Amino acid sequence: MTERDAERAVCAAICAGSGLKAREIAAKTGLEKKTVNHILYASPLLKEICWKDRDCRWHALVRQERPHLGLEEFSGYYGRAGDFLLLSEEAWLARLTEGCTRIGRSLNDTRGLLHSFKDCREQIRRLLEDLREMLGEECLGWELAFELRLKRAKTSRLYADVLLITEDRVFSLEFKMKDRIDPDEVLQAAKYSPYLEILFGPAYEIIPVLVLTAAREVFDFVPIGKADRLLPVCSGDMLFNVFDEYLGFLH
Q1: pTM of the predicted model, to two decimals?
Q2: Residues near 168 by Cβ (< 8 Å), separated by ≥ 6?
Q3: Contact between residue 55 and residue 65 where contact means Cβ atoms under 8 Å apart
Q4: Annotation: CATH topology of 3-60
Q5: Closest Cα partner for 166 from 143, 185, 149, 196?
Q6: Where are the extended beta strands (E) located within the chain?
Q7: Which of 24, 150, 208, 242 could lock onto 158 through a cystine, CB 3.0 to 4.6 A?
Q8: Pair 82, 138: CB distance under 8 Å
Q9: Checking DSSP bridges between strand 158-165 and strand 169-176, what pairing results, if any?
Q10: Residue 235, SS3?
């Protein structure tokens, strides 16, 4: 078992329990107790999303099942897709900026940042309207998180633009107001996946996507650096097709 797999197993055990001691986590995961203790006290990510009570029992701040209670504490905006569609741009932006302030998300360069926020919102609104037309009301129960921030350590900073959470998948959408693919931005879109795998647990597939909102009719799979893995890159008007690639509702 790799270190990341071990972290994922420990986090999943904590999330599934109602307060577990290290030896109980070890029994549930099959890991040695010393390995569990090392993860609990050395993993920057687990330090942020888990806490220990006076009886040395560990608890999770975010559930690993729907609804993901606690996720709102790390997000500028969190809610159901259906509720998001009911909000005006003004009301949504007010909630997002208030949430960003609460989680410590810098709002410097406000003019440019708010423009990118609105651009991102419009892309998601169009996507959800298209998904609702194809899938019906089912997709309105999906969860949305904008500006997810987990930032306790330099080595595990997670700054995700948008998460769209279905029954068994988490689409991590990195938005860029550009019309060309930048390999560095492909790496940026992909680098959060290991942390999201730990946060959401083994029941969810993490799918990172790079969205170029200034492009048109772009949909491709590109290499992630020198790795063998590929990452979907699309323009905003083709984001629907990315979801069909994984959910298969057009077939």
Answers
A1: 0.92
A2: 203, 204, 205
A3: no
A4: Arc Repressor Mutant, subunit A (1.10.10)
A5: 143
A6: 50-52, 58-60, 75-80, 143-150, 158-165, 169-176, 205-212, 219-223, 230-235
A7: 150
A8: no
A9: antiparallel
A10: strand
Kindly list the distances between the CA atom of residue 197 and the CA atoms of 18, 32, 45, 69, 194, in Å, as whole numbers in the listed order. Answer: 21, 22, 11, 17, 5
Q: Residues of CATH 3.40.1350 domain(s) within the chain?
A: 71-247
Residues 6+ positions from 143 with CB-CB distance below 8 Å: 66, 67, 68, 71, 78, 79, 80, 81, 163, 164, 165
Cα four-point dihedral sign 122, 161, 95, 75: positive
Q: Helix and strand tally (H, E) in the chain?
A: 10, 9
The fold for domain 71-247 equals Trna Endonuclease; Chain: A, domain 1 (3.40.1350)
Parts of the chain belonging to CATH 1.10.10:
3-60
First to last CA, the chain: 37
**35-54 per-position pLDDT tens digit:** 999 999 998 889 889 999 99
The answer to whether 190 touches 242, Cβ cutoff 8 Å, is no
| Token code pair at residue 48 | 């942020």
Find tokens 């986090």 and name the residue: 11
